[in-house]
Amino acid sequence: DVKVTQSSRYLVKRTGEKVFLECVQDMDHENMFWYRQDPGLGLRLIYFSYDVKMKEKGDIPEGYSVSREKKERFSLILESASTNQTSMYLCASSPNLAGGDTQYFGPGTRLTVL
Amino acid sequence: QKEVEQNSGPLSVPEGAIASLNCTYSDRVSQSFFWYRQYSGKSPELIMSIYSNGDKEDGRFTAQLNKASQYVSLLIRDSQPSDSATYLCAGTRGSGAGSYQLTFGKGTKLSVIP
Fold first, then answer.
1. A74-89, pLDDT tens digit by residue?
2. How far apart are CA A3 and CA A91, in angstroms?
3. CB-based burial of residue B107 (10 Å sphere; 0-12 exposed, 13-18 middle, 19+ buried)?
4. Are residues B77 and B44 in contact, defined by beta-carbon separation less than 8 angstroms?
């Protein structure tokens, strides 16, 4: 079975802190994604990566950056957390470069910024 | 027009009935379509994928795709209370790097009444 893990299920941070959210997949997938999910807004893509050290902006990249130094690991960084970044963050991975292959989701990290 | 649109519901059906979930999409979305189920507080899990016009059946689930009408649906036969969840419709965007991305509807909440 595909397994996508995220470093924390719940996280509470203060405004202005630097926050790291880690995601690891164990299926050698090329593609990895970071989403946030908010009530009424659905799932929105923040960043994705289709190869090591490669990254592409999604729909809402402002205030975020990412890092992918190894194929299995994709990190989301909030350089200076703000209260409007309180959300559920979901990581996903998929095995192929073309055609829209199935994405597999991690359990999510619920981040609260105070 | 939003890329993927769903009726937010809630959709209530009695146990044993057929639940019909619908989704329309814009010209920016193409190729592949997916239905995910998301229980409250959990991450999305794949139910069905469909790539070509017509019906695709898997157990109690049938996905239908009509590319001419830009319409995707999910039928759940013999609905069970355990089917109560939010159902997310997703499609791939374009081709090339865009085809790595999924764009999601906001989801339809289904309640199956015992």
1. 999 999 999 999 999 9
2. 11
3. buried
4. no
Check A108 against B43: CB less than 8 A apart.
yes
Chain A's closest residue to B49, CA to CA, is A102
A31, A43, A100 ranked by CB distance to B104: nearest: A43
User: pLDDT tens for residues B9-27?
Assistant: 899 999 999 999 999 999 8
* Strands B85-93 and B102-104, sheet pairing: antiparallel
**In chain B, whose CA is at the least distance from the CA of A41?**
B106
Contact A42 B105 (CB under 8 A): yes
Residue B30 has pLDDT above 80, yes or no: no
| Residues B98, A87: Cα–Cα separation, whole Å | 25
Contact A103, A95 (CB under 8 A): no
| Interatomic CA distance for residues B71 and A82, integer angstroms | 38
What pLDDT, on the 0 to 100 scale, is given for residue B2?
81
Looking at residue B98, what is its pLDDT?
61
Question: Identity (one letter) of the amino acid at B14?
Answer: P
| Count of C-beta atoms within a 10 Å radius of residue A63 | 14
